[in-house]
Amino acid sequence: MSKQLPQAPTVKALRQRVARWRRDKLKVALVPTMGALHEGHLSLVDHANALADRTVVSIFVNPAQFAAGEDLTTYPRDLEGDLAKLSSRKANLVFVPTGEEMYPEGFATSVAVKGPAAVELEDKHRPHFFTGVATVVAKLLIQAGCDFAVFGEKDYQQLMTVTRMAADLDIATKIVGAPTIRHEDGLAMSSRNAYLSDYERVVAPLLHKTLQETAEELRVSGDVETCLRKARRALNKASFRVDYVEARNGETLKKLMGTSDEPIRLLAAASLGKTRLIDNIAV
């Protein structure tokens, strides 16, 4: 079944297919991924299918967003399994470029981002990350020329950064956020969950549970710093190594101004063993 799903290994092949759809006046959506697809990714495909007549899924493990010592070489890869899953969810085309196709010899350009990419959350702990993300996403949006591009809310700072980048660069593609998909115990689905040991998998849902409890306490008390300190202590006690637990403006990711009508987002990143987990919820 997966062999019947059309693949485009080059930018030229991708553009040719999208151009044919354009001639038929069809709307096109893009779902950028790094593969190792799970139900969270597939929900993005469903979301894209609801928005557009045709859906393109890209699978590319982007080296530009990995720093030295991160998990580029060990990042989960399963192209055959990914294609089978995408066939079952009615994707129309899979863009599977090589590293050389995306970053050919002599490649010398990157997209520097600030705004929501420079608020001392992920950028503080992975300073290279959003330049790599913005560069590859800008390329994908330009290459595909789609009407929509769908990103998951689990990577909330990434979603905000890509939205800002597309607006600033006048890229016509509309960036759409889709809800985080979770396991029954609350753990946000992620390809990196495969790294968790059996014991760590039992502990991991405490990240989401702690955010839920913190959100409820914030709604009742309004004491942001006390609630955040309590959340960090609870995660440290549960063997997490906490990078951050923060409450930020849900639209800008700036630090809270303290107004009563300000949208609040709780965001957290913490490691269990060798696995770094991120999560966020609205308050």
Structure write-up:
With 283 residues, this protein is an alpha/beta fold. It has 2 domains: 2-178, HUPs (Rossmann fold); 191-282, 2-Layer Sandwich (Pantoate--beta-alanine Ligase, Chain: A,domain 2). 39% of the residues lie in helices and 19% in strands. It has a 6-stranded parallel sheet, with helices on both faces. The radius of gyration is 19 Å and the shape is globular.
Features:
globular; Pantoate--beta-alanine Ligase, Chain: A,domain 2; alpha/beta; Rossmann fold; six-stranded parallel beta sheet; 2 domains; 283 residues
**CATH-defined topology of the largest domain:** Rossmann fold
Succession of helices and strands? EHEHEHEHHHEHEHHHEEE
From the N-terminal CA to the C-terminal CA, the straight-line distance is 43 Å
Tell me the quaternary state.
single chain
How many domain modules?
2
Which segments are poorly predicted (pLDDT under 50) over 5 or more consecutive residues?
A: none
Q: What structural class should be given to the helix and strand makeup?
A: alpha/beta
Q: Tell me the strand order in the biggest sheet.
A: 1-4-3-2-5-6
What fraction, in percent, of the residue positions are helical? 25-40%
Based on CA atoms alone, the radius of gyration comes out at: 19 Å
Q: Give the biggest beta sheet.
A: 6 strands, parallel
Strand content: 15-25%
CATH superfamily of the largest domain: HUPs
Shape: globular
Number of helices, counting only DSSP H or I runs of 4 residues or more: 10
Number of strands: 9
The CATH class assignment of the largest domain is: Alpha Beta
Average pLDDT figure:
96
Q: Tell me what the CATH architecture of the largest domain is.
A: 3-Layer(aba) Sandwich
